[in-house]
Amino acid sequence: MPNTTTNTVTVADNNANKPEESSDKSPVTKNETLTRQEQKVFVGNLSFSTTKESLASFAESAGKVSTAIIIIRGRRPIGYGFVTFETDEAVEKAIKDLDHKMLDGREVNVQLAHPRENTRDDDATTSHRKKKRSSVKSRRSAKRSSVTEEEKKEEEKDKTIKEEEPEIDKKEETEARDNTTKRKKRSNKKKVERERTSTEPSKTTLFIANLPYATTSEELKDKVFSSYKVVSAYVARMRHGRSKGYGFVEFEDEKEQLRALESFKDLVLDGRSIYMKIAFSEPKKENQVEDLKVKNEEEKDTNKK
């Protein structure tokens, strides 16, 4: 942290001109100076719906807050943040009183934030990465140069072939261009039609996100949506069987779909706030429902084993 390091060096220079003090006072180490100047706590296991305003409001019970930030990767929060207080007492109170408290449906953990220090291992890793990048760049430049030489040879061959070929009649060339343009227009129309049909909102299916990884398709149907007329429920999984954290629930009709959407606006499952919306998918094939039923049966058999 640049500001902290600068302040520490300035204090050392000013003390150099002062007379020596008694040896009873223990010198302040660099780590203690950084920790005292920061007055910052780490807050983990945050809900994706938590904002910096709600985080600051949550932390104000411990003391006056200077800043509160949520760490974001891309456009999405990644589940933790930092709160800076104005006093050391507020930091200690936050760690003591706010740790394992509930915020937006999640039990957060609050710890003292430690400043990151550069080590020799970090420097070695950085230099290794720089060398690796430079070697990759050199290989890429060598490939580009070889490709450029090959392209030049191909261009020379094409020129020679064109000089030897007889001239094509202008009418035939124009007709060929027109036919190509017509084919492109037809393919673009078909593409637009496919995109329109693939983005129609479903009248029976809901998309369910932020599911606990332990939730199965059977639990989603028989426990969470047991009071609704459900045709099938499916939790998406990776190849090795782990849940992706989202799934789909298909109802008998649009009325049941909308009823479930309205009833479960604030649904919390195993400490996680569940997010639901109407699914957008391709038009249903005749055997799509049967496929979902087969997947659910296979999952039941796996759980029994």
Give your account of this protein's structure:
50% of the residues lie in helices and 22% in strands. The chain has helices at 2-16, 30-38, 52-59, 88-97, 120-164, 170-198, 217-224, 254-263, 288-304; strands spanning 40-44, 65-73, 76-85, 102-103, 106-107, 109-112, 201-209, 230-237, 243-251, 268-269, 272-273, 275-280. A hairpin with a 2-residue loop joins strand 4 (102-103) and strand 5. The two termini are 54 Å apart. 14% of the residues are buried.
Strand-helix topology:
Elements: H1 2-16, H2 30-38, E1 40-44, H3 52-59, E2 65-73, E3 76-85, H4 88-97, E4 102-103, E5 106-107, E6 109-112, H5 120-164, H6 170-198, E7 201-209, H7 217-224, E8 230-237, E9 243-251, H8 254-263, E10 268-269, E11 272-273, E12 275-280, H9 288-304
Antiparallel strand pairs: 1-3, 1-6, 2-3, 4-5, 7-9, 7-12, 8-9, 10-11
Outline of the structure:
It contains 9 helices and 12 strands. The protein has 305 residues and is of the alpha+beta class. The strands form 4 sheets. Strands 2-3-1-6 form a 4-stranded antiparallel beta sheet.
Structure keywords:
305 residues; alpha+beta; 4-stranded antiparallel sheet
